[in-house]
User: Which sequence fits this backbone?
């Protein structure tokens, strides 16, 4: 029998990163997400009603310096977007900030628009139409 938890959605996503200060700068100053937690061991940002929280990877493993979605674990994080104008604005802002991105693309499977980009540890992020 299924448990079927009564939940309104995701509370937080916890990620490991190689450099806390680089990730803090990217999420706070480039993406402009509000900083919610800032300690020596943890930084967290508010994305709508969800927290994205980072801890330093420990111990670092040289062979795992860069994220790959092909390993077991996180593939990507998609943040919701309500209109195409916002997708275009974000894609341009990312390009202007020197952040590689896909531009606005169509997900052929779900027929939804999105823009994909990577954070400093190469974790893929998307802004995705709801």
Assistant:
């Amino acid at each position: 029998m299924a448990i079927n938890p009564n939940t309104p959605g995701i509370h937080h996503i916890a990620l490991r990163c190689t450099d806390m200060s680089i990730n803090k700068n990217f999420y706070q100053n480039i993406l402009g997400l509000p900083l919610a937690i800032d300690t020596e061991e943890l930084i967290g940002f508010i994305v709508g009603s969800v927290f994205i929280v980072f801890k330093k990877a420990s111990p670092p493993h040289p062979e795992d310096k860069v994220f790959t979605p092909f390993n077991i674990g996180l593939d990507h994080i998609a943040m919701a977007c309500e209109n195409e104008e916002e997708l275009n604005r974000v894609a341009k802002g990312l390009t202007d900030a020197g952040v590689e991105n896909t531009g606005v693309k169509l997900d052929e499977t779900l027929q939804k628009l999105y823009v994909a980009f990577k954070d400093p540890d190469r974790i893929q992020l998307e802004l995705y139409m709801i």
In short: The domain at 12-129 is CATH 3.10.180.10 (2,3-Dihydroxybiphenyl 1,2-Dioxygenase; domain 1).
